Amino acid sequence: MAVTWSGRWNHVRKVTERTGPFAHPDFEPSTETLQFLQEVCHILVIGAGGLGCELLKDLALLGIRNIDVIDMDTIDVSNLNRQFLFRPKDVGKTKAETAANFINLRIPGCNVTAHFAKIQDFDASFYRKFHIIVCGLDSIIARRWINGMLISMLSYEDGELDQSSIIPMVDGGTEGFKGNARVILPGMTACVDCTLDLYPPQVNFPLCTIAHTPRLPEHCIEYVRILLWPKEEPFGAGVAIDGDDPAHVSWILEKSQERANEYNISGITYRLTQGVVKRIIPAVASTNAVIAAACATEVFKLATSCCQPLNNYMNFTDIEGVYTYTFEAEKKDDCVACSQKPQNISFCESDKLQDILTYLLESTTYQMKSPSITTAINGKNRTLYMQSVKSIEEKTRANLKKSLAELELCSGQELYVADPTTPSSLTFILQMGTKME
Ligand SMILES: [Zn+2]
């Protein structure tokens, strides 16, 4: 098949071979820009799901030929309505390989390399190969990890950031009819951890609304799930709700319906009930398409300098009409990931190690998942608690109940914390005083 034909890249050349009022000050129209996109530019796409399929298609149609894609999943039948690079015959195959093959066959000249793997399987030498990394992930942990990896690859000379060590990260996220796209220049602009409070741990309805003033079908379902189920114990004492057990879901559906009738609320269905119980947020193809298009445009802008990149965070919703808003998320001076500053944490001598662990898990700043804590006493490393290795967990579990005084930890003690949300361990400095809220 011909790799190119007359007029094939006219849509791109209109932008790369002419200037315009929004062009970056350094931009010079040139035929070399398209050549750079096609021959040199190397982009990594993380995720080959709803956003990833769109991203691969968009980037390939913008003229980018050297693309790698990482995804650890295989194709499920429920993906086929929106992950359009997959067909029924592909169910069970790996997303990365299937998506790469599809693009390579469909878009002549494009060369997508698939990695059926986790992002954690690769180290800095792999990530350093790319000009730009674009993420279409559904996991905040993975997002934070790749963010941490790109930050760990920055080099500083006399405290000055070496600009050539920066690999820009373009990140897209969607949840139902809501989405966002952002551009991160690691070390320079707000990183994922700088804005961690934009990802609330979980959306919950206020209990008073659920109990007294329900307005939505979801409020009624939550009422049954949170208040009625433990009170009535319909399937026996202590039996937890199983969102995949039709008997459980039907019981919740029936009771939710009764409550909804009392308040004149309509819209309760089996599907919605199961969705609320299992906390399923439906994936919406159009939201993915918009967010991926925004991300691909940012990759194109960064790669060609044809236009100033997004500064730096765009929100989008298409719940009622279409709404979008762009703002500059601020880099946090003491960000745990990108500030290069150790974190001060304050506790009392009588607090237990468990209190520190709980704080790291629950604070909106850190939102860790399974932290391991080590320290150095008189130059010797000491593991205070480690969750990831079973034998060490058992040996160190007793420390959780000990007070900081019993563990001989005092003010100024450095604690090193490793967590799946970051590739490198973080340094905390313990201050004895009052416990942090
Ligand atoms: Zn940061």
Compact summary:
Its EC number is 6.2.1.64. It is an enzyme of class 6 (ligase). The chain is an alpha/beta fold and 437 residues long.
Task: Describe the overall structure.
The chain is an alpha/beta fold and 437 residues long. The chain is 32% helix and 18% strand. The chain has 13 helices and 15 strands. It has helices spanning 10-16, 32-39, 50-61, 95-106, 124-127, 140-152, 207-212, 217-232, 246-262, 270-277, 285-304, 353-362, 390-396, and strands at 42-46, 66-71, 111-116, 132-136, 156-157, 160-161, 169-175, 178-184, 313-317, 323-327, 343-347, 372-377, 380-385, 414-418, 426-432. The strands form three sheets. It has an eight-stranded mixed sheet, sandwiched between helices. Strands 11-15-14-12-13 form a five-stranded mixed sheet. A hairpin with a 2-residue loop joins strand 7 (169-175) and strand 8 (178-184). Helix 8 crosses helix 10. It is globular. The mean pLDDT is 93. Zinc ion (ZN) is lined by residues 191, 193-194, 332, 335, 337-338. The site of zinc ion (ZN) has 7 residues, from loops.
